[in-house]
Predict the 3D structure of the following.
Amino acid sequence: MIEITMDNFEKEVLDCEKTVLVDFWATWCGPCMMMAPEIDAFAEETDKVKVCKLNVDEATELAITFGVMSIPTVLLFENGQEVKRFVGAKEKHQIAEFVGE
């Protein structure tokens, strides 16, 4: 799992040749904490997508740029462009369905 920051966002997400899933989360967010093990389990089991986490308190500008109003919000990027998103906690199998696995 890759931690996304303002410094590495372009390299890890926008310039990545693989599909990238970015979990926008915060330590104080209950639903984020509930979903964290699901995201972690999905990340361990997939090689189809690169899975990243972005703490909105540490990279607020990116959350604003992508219009993240509620967390957890998960964005899927292909070729540096957002292709879809979901808001709210999901289970591992729902995350897999979201990315098309």
